[in-house]
Design brief:
This protein folds into two domains: 757 residues, TonB-dependent receptor, beta-barrel domain (Maltoporin, Chain A); 103 residues, no CATH class. It is 9% helix and 47% strand. The chain starts with a helix and ends with a strand. The chain is mainly beta. The strands form six sheets. It has a 22-stranded antiparallel beta barrel. It has a five-stranded mixed sheet with strand order 1-4-5-2-3. A five-stranded mixed sheet has the order 29-31-26-25-30, with no helix packed on it. Strand 20 and strand 21 form a beta hairpin.
């Protein structure tokens, strides 16, 4: 009965959609280049070209709409094409989004693991975070198809999987799109569109260098086109070295020289003894029972170990992509694509540092004068035994294949059925201290087997025993099967144009096998969880052109309405229906006004419902209530089967100005408004939580009772050396906690003009300006304004461009501006200075070269941060997720990066 009701509701909804309607909008070439299908020469070349261009535009499916030849009504499309790739220092697809102001560098990427779910990114996936709403709120597609999830939990989207050389363009729709694409499209959609126009061979190579940093990329693409189809095969390799905190002078814990705090920790070597609540700094060279008189009450050793951690990990990537299409007979075509991608990484982090409980049985036990405790604690850094850094390593491998059949039907209708299968496997290995071996060595009364934490050094055998440990080996395997069917075409004609309809259905099945292991190297133990879900979807979209060229009147040159709706039924979290309506209105030629309204959702990740890594993780939390500035405790994480889908309401208004009186000029303004509720979040990896205790009081458990600690430790593994008396436990389990309310304006302006002698000039700017960004950290917490605070979007971001080209030469300069914002993790609140950087790109293209077979050669030199400006100082403590002294979310630590490249076409 329930399924029958669903079918009736869906049928009624689609009928309602068909009763409305919309006008097809021709896509500007800068937003969706025409397809590369061959065109047969005719007697009138000009007429043939015009007809071919229109036919190609009619076949294009633009991101944000399911109807061929139609840009999303009510929403704008940000397109980054191949020409844009070459004008930047990008060596991977993920690098492209650094130049899109709407893509905020907060959360899931290889340089930042601090905020918005970044702590779970232990394999260094690169995801897009549109408008700072959250990386998981942006849906990433490949040619309109979902990608298999990345990360050990299968819940992340990786934009790096497609080589740059294989991409035709990237399209971004920064507007809610669940009515079109389903889950995850809360903030918008990123669509990676593969090349199908290559006829020949293209090769490229790029090498870059900055202080203590190198990067490189090289690849080859081979393509062949014929009258009825095409084939392309691409291979690309990219690499960049690590950048360590020691490589930059401003990355440090002791920031008093910058006017900031001293974040040096007390877990040093030599360390600090605490007995009877009194601290005693161990002197240089160590202390023995015979020299215990040298201990001075009330003293603490402090050291800077945070700079040992890599700011950027070393990453190597390899990718292969194939595209093909073939007409089987007139009106029937097979089309497909496939890719394989592999990434490996190594990141050095500071060795383990924490408080040790040393019993009096220890062979090296030192009692401070006047004390006789049965045990004492020693704050200690294992750099002497394990080396100052430990290498965290791992990798990812992904492949997917898609094949479909397109059929031309009578009266301009088209049907398409396609299926795809994708597979991802990720792994990460974190090394640390063997807690069992250390506990035994601390308790040993034999000097040959006892561990000495008092600065006197330890034997190779003891050091090897405690260092023989994998603290976390996380593995994940994700399999995804998709089947899609779509039908679209014209229903009937109105004076303003044809009413067009697209309807479709989808089936998706996801299987995830993930788990975590720990133990001595060679004898790991752990558990693998097998999780799965499936969901069925049906959607409809109708376009109604009320006014167009044939019936335009004064004040109404064009009026299009687009209505879309989608129904999704999940096997585990229920059903959801999401509608969207968009309107385009042109009162005069050259001005388009638009608006949209819709709802969106995001289903909980399988890894949030059932955690593959339930644990208590030892953390060193910066704490304003602690005399030492830090408090050691546990971050408590488990799955939550009671999670519900996140929901959002989005609406936007915009204007596109392209005046005929000023050819080459365009201006786009878009106001957006998003209310995002029930956001699933956790505090895992958020080391600043105690600095914001007023926001998270219900998740902070200070001085937990022994019984409560026992209830957790008896069933959950401990990541790190167990704490005898944890001073705090942070509840980091996922929950439907957050609320985000944000609105603002996207803007883009460009003016391009040609001169008869001096060449072509271009000037432009694009950016984002927020009016509000309000957040409630929990369901019952007050909604607070967080715009312009650290870990949230800054007030605005702007990127300007000035370019010139003539006779194969091209010069492009870019100015990037990040305004001042506030760091409220310290008291008093710090004002972080603004940051302006300049990028420069020089290129020269030789066409019709004299070398046999070589058609075109382009040479390129790019300078990012041309004047080598350091990031502004930010009072942040170093950690495994955030380097100290600057904010990696809003500043790049590389400094001046010079990249030299060449592209050859045969």
């Amino acid at each position: 009965m329930q399924s029958e009701t669903r079918r009736l509701l869906l049928g009624a909804a689609l009928a309602a959609l068909s009763a409305g309607s919309v006008q097809a909008q021709t896509v500007p070439p800068t937003q969706a280049p025409a397809s590369a299908d061959p065109v047969t020469a005719e007697a009138d070349p000009a007429a043939t070209a015009a007809a071919a261009d229109q036919a190609a535009a009619d076949e294009i499916v633009v991101t944000g709409s399911r109807i061929r030849g139609v840009a999303p009504v009510g929403s704008s499309v940000i397109a980054v094409g191949r020409a844009d790739f070459k004008a930047t220092s990008a060596v991977s697809t993920a690098d492209l989004f650094k130049d899109v102001p709407q893509a905020i560098n907060i959360g899931v990427n290889e340089t930042n693991r601090g905020a918005q779910g970044g702590a779970g990114n232990i394999t260094y996936v690169n995801s897009v975070n549109l408008r700072g709403i959250g990386p998981s709120a942006t849906l990433t597609l490949l040619n309109g198809h979902r990608l298999p999830g990345s990360g050990t939990g299968g819940n992340l989207s990786d934009t790096s999987i497609v080589p740059l050389l294989a991409l035709q363009r990237v399209e971004v729709v920064a507007d809610g799109a669940s009515a079109i694409y389903g889950s995850d499209a809360v903030a918008g959609v990123v669509n990676l569109i593969l090349r199908r126009d290559l006829d020949g061979v293209e090769m490229n190579a790029r090498n870059g260098v900055a202080d203590n940093y190198t990067t490189r990329q090289y690849g080859i693409a081979v393509g062949k086109k014929w009258a009825t189809g095409q084939l392309m095969l691409t291979y690309e390799h990219s690499y960049h070295s690590a950048l360590n905190g020691l490589d930059r002078s401003y990355i440090r814990s002791d920031q008093r020289g910058f006017g900031g705090p001293d974040f040096r920790v007390a877990t040093c070597n030599p360390g600090t003894i605490t007995a009877g609540g009194v601290t005693y700094a161990i002197p240089a060279g160590g202390v023995t029972p015979g020299t215990a008189g040298a201990l001075v009450p009330g003293t603490i050793n402090r050291c800077d170990i945070g700079a040992f951690t890599d700011v950027i990990p070393k990453i190597s990537k390899d990718g292969v992509v194939a595209t093909f299409s073939q007409d089987i007979t007139s009106g029937i075509r097979i089309i497909g694509d496939a890719f394989w991608y592999k990434r490996s990484f190594v990141r050095n982090v500071a060795a383990t540092a924490q408080s040790l409980t040393v019993p009096s049985s220890n062979a090296f036990y030192v009692r401070p004068p006047g004390t006789n405790p049965a045990s004492e604690s020693v704050n200690y850094f294992f750099g002497q035994e394990l080396g100052n850094t430990l290498a965290f390593d791992g990798g990812s491998e992904t492949y997917q294949g898609t094949i479909g059949v397109q059929v031309d039907l009578p009266h301009g209708w088209k049907a398409e059925v396609n299926g795809s299968f994708g597979h991802n496997k990720d792994s990460a290995y974190n090394y640390g201290v063997n807690a069992a071996a250390l506990t035994s060595a601390l308790a040993s009364s034999n000097p040959l087997t006892a561990f000495n934490p008092y600065g006197g050094g330890n034997s190779a055998a003891v050091s090897s025993a405690i260092g023989n440990f994998v603290s976390l080996a996380a593995i994940g395997r994700t399999k995804q099967t998709q089947i899609q069917a779509k039908l679209d075409g014209s229903l009937f004609a109105l004076p303003g144009g044809d009413v067009r309809l697209a309807v479709g259905a989808e089936y998706n099945r996801v299987r995830v096998a993930n788990g975590s292991f720990t133990g001595p190297i060679g004898s790991l133990t752990g558990t693998v969880f097998n999780l799965g879900r499936s969901f069925k979807s049906a959607y409809g979209e109708v376009l109604i052109p009320l006014f167009g060229n044939d019936n335009a009147v004064g004040g109404i040159r064009k009026l299009d309405i687009d209505i879309a709706g989608r129904y999704d039924s999940y096997s585990d979290v229920g059903d959801t229906w999401n509608p969207k309506i968009g309107v385009n209105y042109s009162p005069v030629d050259g001005l388009m006004l638009r608006g949209s309204y819709g709802t969106s959702f995001r289903a909980p990740n399988l890894g949030s419902l059932v955690s593959s890594n339930p644990s208590l993780t030892v953390q060193n939390f910066p704490d304003p209530l602690s005399a030492t500035g830090f408090t050691q405790g546990y971050a408590w994480t488990e799955g939550n089967l009671d999670l519900k889908p996140e929901t959002a309401t989005t609406w936007s208004l915009g204007a596109d100005l392209t005046p005929r009186a000023l050819p080459g000029f365009s201006l786009t303004l878009s106001y957006f408004n998003v209310k995002y509720e029930g956001q699933i979040s956790s505090l895992l990896g958020d080391l600043s939580v105690l600095q914001r205790s007023a926001l998270f009081s219900s998740f902070i458990i200070r001085n937990p009772t022994a019984a409560f600690v026992e209830s957790l430790t008896s069933r959950l593994p401990i990541r790190g050396v167990a704490l005898a008396n944890p001073a705090v436990i942070v509840d980091a389990r996922p929950a439907n906690l957050g609320i985000t309310q944000t609105d603002g304006i996207d803007f883009s302006a460009r003016y391009r003009f040609d001169t008869e002698r001096a060449g072509t000039f271009q000037i432009g700017a694009n950016g984002i300006y927020y009016t509000t960004y309000k957040v409630a950290q929990t369901a019952t917490a007050p909604v607070l304004e967080r715009l312009g605070f650290i870990n949230y979007p800054v007030k605005y971001r702007v990127r300007g461009n000035l370019g010139w080209s003539k006779d194969g030469f091209a010069v492009n300069t870019f100015a990037n501006y990040v305004p001042s914002y506030r760091n409220d993790t310290i008291t008093p609140v710090q004002r972080i200075k603004s940051w302006t950087t300049i990028d420069l790109d020089l290129s020269y293209t030789i066409k019709n070269t004299n070398f046999p077979g070589l058609d075109t050669a382009t040479f390129n030199v790019n300078a990012t941060n041309l004047f080598d400006r350091d990031p502004p100082y930010d009072a942040l403590a170093p950690s495994a997720n955030q380097s100290g002294g600057f904010d990696v979310q809003n500043a790049n630590p590389l400094g001046r990066l010079i990249t030299v490249g060449v592209t050859l076409k045969f």
